[in-house]
Amino acid sequence: MTGEAATVDTPLKKLVGERTAKALAGHLDLHTAGDLIYHFPRRYDERGEHTDIRSLDVGEQVTVLAQVQRTAVRPMRQRRGNLLEVTVGDGSGGVLTCTFFGNQAWRERELRPGRWGLFAGKVTEFRGKRQLNGPEYVLLGEGGEGEAAANEEVEEFAGALIPVYPAAAAVPTWVIARCVRVVLDTFTPPDDPLPATVRATRNLADIGTALREIHRPTSKEALYRARRRLKWDEAFAVQLTLVQRKHRAAAWPARARPAKAGGLLDAFDARLPYELTSGQQVVGREIAADLAAAHPMHRLLQGEVGSGKTVVALRAMLQVVDAGGQAALLAPTEVLAAQHYRGILDLLGPLARAGELGAAEDATRVELITGSLGAAARRRALAEVAEGRAGIVLGTHALLYEGVDFHDLGLVVVDEQHRFGVEQRDALRAKADQPPHVLVMTATPIPRTVAMTVYGDLETSTLSQLPQGRSPIASHVVPAAEKPAFLDRAWRRLREEVAKGHQAYVVCPRIGEGPVSDEEAPREDDNGRRPPLAVTEVAPLLAEGPLHGLRIGVLHGRLPADEKDAVMRAFADGELDVLVATTVVEVGVNVPNATVMIVLDADRFGVSQLHQLRGRVGRGSAAGLCLLVSEAAEGSSARERLDAVASTTDGFKLAELDLEQRREGDVLGATQSGRRSHLRLLSLRRDAELIRDARAEAIELVEEDPDLARHPALAASVAALVDEERAEYLEKG
């Protein structure tokens, strides 16, 4: 290892040697001094304090700080030689057995009772005991024969707080710590990108101090200050990107689409068979004002399943049609697009039949464009759209293909935004001469910090009331492994509902044989559990067994489009009693007569998914019932998650739970690109106040200096922390 001065761009091989640099690059994707310096410890252990060994999961790759309690040597049964068993504990009663094969007397002398060390390996279980087989380890304090570079290692962990890094089997945490020390010894930190006024106002450490203290903290207080500064950098980078995006959007020209008295919208409101909720009225006024402005609306409409978002969106579309424009609604599946089409035709009645006998005076036309349209029907629909006769156009991503030309696209409504790629949404917006107004809808409630961080460039409206006439949904967990009789009762309960004239869904995580699609859960997890239940396998078993004699349909993403539509239409028309499906029914499917949903292998689904699925029942006057069938053991995290879903229908509470259980990187969009993101410390759940403060500073700074021209170091830092693809993801939003 050399003593050459290091900057963030210095290749690691110049600092830590070719072999170590190769291991860091190959196993952890760390190539430069900057990569390593920004590879922050996952946690810090403290001498005399214990790691909770009892909380470790079998199969987990771990590093634990523990004390040697006893050693034992015994002959191996299957081959010659001895086996060394070293029992280590954490002081709380949790113990691990470390096993070493072969005659290693030096190891027995080194691993004396009372010695503390870091032990790294994969947790296994044998006869009820937790084990680490042949773990890597480093002892703290006195040196020993088996400690590689003992003096260096001891120096590494001389402080009270011991950093434990995200590591790999081939590159344990102490190797990373040693490399970090070598880099820090010669590291020249970059110019501090944060403006001095922000640092002073927010009492933030300088960047050099923060980077040193996060790796080699001199105290808990210093570590807290370092983490706070580095979290601030991450939050500030994201917020600056979003605020700049919002600032640019406000300057774009757009055609104002003001409301018109006595037009289609007024006629629609007059024929609505029910009164809008106060929430729908408030949100409607917000959207109407946005549409009347001369810059594009960019609004997120979130609301509980069944809160009436579609009616709000339709009223916005009618305002645009009244103003001479067209509106496009983009749905994630053909099933949902077709359902929106039928629902909007029903709601509009004669208002959607321009050119037909009995049409209303101001009527428009509604067109559905999907990939499965026949050639003649497609030509006719395209002409209606291109010539402007169709005021409302519905479809899937087929709307994005060349050949679909709008006369005057004024509004894009994106249903279930998270189902679409950035490029798809952007392609639709590009079909207008000027940027159209955009309304993004989601039925997945979004915690406030996520809305601020991921959708921070959108104005947000929330519908929390359910329309009158909606029925409550009761949810229960069915523990199939512990109490098989409960599953039998679930099928009887389904038959009882069908006998009353109602319908039911049975949802499975997988389609069946063939390649895994986006709507499916993984076939087998790391713990070797059986593959998830599949629609094509479960449907015939139900037809021959507990649901014998009922009319059963099958729906999944690999069916041809016309077959999917036929099955969905048959279910909606009451020609089927039970629909066995994948999550293709998760969003928007509306069959008010369906009162029961049984979700098989429910622990294979996420919290938000289960909440979405559950929203398919209880949409009429009869009460809904959702049964979550699982083999997850009582007390397991999977079972606790299901119990939480069953205990509340409050989507916002469940969204917070979902956020708690997901990796922060997924929420922040770090996985949107194949490249590594530097957003590592920020927690949307724990750092809400810091994110709010960063947003306030970002707004102030962008107002003074929209392109950060006077802050080049900050602009470069934002580019590094929010990489190009991530920025593009936020930009196109």
Automatic annotation (TrEMBL):
SMART domains: DEXDc, HELICc. One of its GO terms (molecular function) is DNA helicase activity. Residues 290-463 form the Helicase ATP-binding domain. CDD domains: DEXHc_RecG, RecG_wedge_OBF. The keyword Transmembrane helix does not apply. This is Probable DNA 3'-5' helicase RecG. Residues 486-660 form the Helicase C-terminal domain. It comes from Micromonospora echinospora. Keywords: ATP-binding, DNA damage, DNA repair, DNA-binding, Helicase, Hydrolase, Nucleotide-binding.
